[in-house]
Amino acid sequence: MSVETIPTGLTVGTWTLDNSHSQIGFTVRHAGISKVRGEFTEASGTAVVGEDLNSSSVQATIKAASFDSGDANRDGHVRGEDFFDVEQFPELSFTSTGISGSGETYQLTGDLTIRGITKPVTFDTEFNGVAVDPFGNTRAGFSAQTVISRKEFGLTWNAALEAGGVLVGDKVTIGIEAEFTAA
C-alpha cells in the first residue's frame, strides 16, 4: 500500500471547522421540474492531519434543526417526523474511514449518519489551499460533493403528482464549502 502525502501547506495537527466561513448545502429535485436548494447552518467538526493521508481523518456533526431552505413552512415539515425528525434524531454526522488522492483532488470516504442510519459515502473533494488571515489564523479551504439516495437514510416521505412522478426526488446532492483553522 502506498503512503499518500498530505496537501502542500497543511501542517500536522488538529484543524477546527470554522462554521461562520463554511456552508453545508444540498440540492434535491422538486416535482420533477426544478431543484430546491438549502443548507444546514450549525455544524462543528475537526480535521486531524497526520504525517500522511492514511493517518489523517475528518469528523463532523450537523444540527438537524438548523435545516434552512428559505421557506419556513417547508423547513418545519422537513424538520418534522416525515423527514429529519429532529426531536428523535437531533444530529447528522460524518466520520471518515479513508482519504486518497493528491495535489488538489481527493476522495474522502466515510460513514454518514442521518436519522440513525449509517451508510458509507465518498465525497469528491478539492483542496483549495492554505492562507493566514489578517488576525494571524492559519486557514485551509476545501470543497466537497457527493450524491446520496435519501430513501437509504429513511427519508421516504413523498406525494404522488397528478401527471405522474413524485413531489420530492430521491437523489440529493450534498455540497460543502469548508474552512478549517489550525489549532
TrEMBL record:
InterPro entries per the UniProt record, alphabetical: Lipid/polyisoprenoid-bd_YceI, TTHA0802/YceI-like_sf
Domain named Lipid/polyisoprenoid-binding YceI-like: which ranges?
Answer: 14-181
Domain of life of the native organism:
Bacteria
Leader sequence range is none
The entry sums up its family as follows: Belongs to the UPF0312 family.
Q: What is this protein called?
A: Polyisoprenoid-binding protein
